[in-house]
Specification:
Helix 1 (2-28) packs across helix 5 (99-109). The relative contact order is 0.08. The strands form two sheets. Strands 7-8-9-10-6-11 form a six-stranded antiparallel beta sheet, with helices on one face. It is of the alpha+beta class and 428 residues long. The protein has four domains: 2-109, no CATH class; 114-224, OB fold (Dihydrolipoamide Acetyltransferase, E2P), CATH 2.40.50; 238-328, 2-Layer Sandwich (Double Stranded RNA Binding Domain); 354-424, no CATH class. It contains 15 helices and eleven strands.
Amino acid sequence: MTESVVDITQYKFDQAEKELREKLVDYSERPEMQSQIGEAFYIWKNDPEFTSEDISEEEIDELTFEKFLDWFLYDFKLLDSEERVIERFYIDEGKELSDAEKRLIKDWIKSIYSFFEVEEVLSGEKCVIKDIFTGKVFEVLDRASSKQIKRKDIIAARPLKIGNQNYFSGIVSLYPATFKNLITEFFDQEFKEYKKLYGNQKTKSEYLKDWGFQIGYYIEDVANHPHFVTPEGDEFILAIANYFVDKYEQCIKNIEKIKSLKEISDKTEEIRIFSWEKIGRNKITGILEIEKTKLRIECYSVDMLARAKSKIEKECKGLIKHLEDTIKEQDTLIDRNISETKKLKKYPLGVKNKKELDSELDKHYDKWLNMPLEILDGESPKQALKTKDGRVKLSSVINELEVIYEHARNRGEPYYDVSKLRKKLKLI
């Protein structure tokens, strides 16, 4: 009897959800809402070269418009009142809504579009996801998405509460697990800027409602620019090292002792997954996966991979055998659901223009001069200058950097003037 009552109640909410969505979309098509939709799209597009003339069926595909409409309905602040569209709808139409619709819309007003780590999946039925910024956990019913995602995947979505269940609203974007650190680093820095502007009392949820849409664009920019320069000055790629594991049990014990590695999987699983943490001078971002006979390291630059390999090979000497290194460009990692956008000059996280980029890279390479490098047999560039063999190797490194940045400059992307390094090292 109880289950029957619950089913009937949930059915009523499911029906109310369909009607409420239609009413909300119809409301957005009123002249007073449409008068602001062009400006809203300009803000959401986050593209300084975009103009109102670009809003046409030819320029905007259906998938892109669905993503935009979800943001417009739930997060966009109307220019005349700073109320969100859904809040204005409730004020204007609330009296005409049914009790079930009123309950739904109160929850929807608080809904957050965020990034989630997939914790559990029941294929074809539901999944359990955890917000990587706030830690909030949702069980979401979604037959389609649950067939395509797997544990540890990162998804961008908006869970909507409907009765006692949660469903995804609009488009769900899927990202590889290796992007988690990249996303959280961007969030941490931007959240600090947000609080500087609007006050330290601002919460993560408020940031996500106001600025959260920028996270997706940052990740898309990274994906569209394989030679993106990271804040550390490295070329942004996915560098991978594969090993054969000869002695699994001892290898696991040694890996667990590495302080800069934190396990992000269950110890009972066939595959153990570790993430590199920022501890002390550790400059590695990425993950390590190990199973009975395989070990795989994934990092965001060749330099990071070299440091990770050096540490693992030292700790697991005699327990693993190196097989191969590979490099994947980011546009092979994400299934982009939006049409190709205009190519713009992009800058690293926290850098707004060429002057700031030069300043940040100057700071990076000042430190780099004293940084031990594997390619220089563990010596820093300044130490390598002291021997003939060291100077030859160092010149080769500088030449390679120059080629990388020259290619970036020719493509109109961020670059560094390597002649500055030559002057500092007196190689000119």
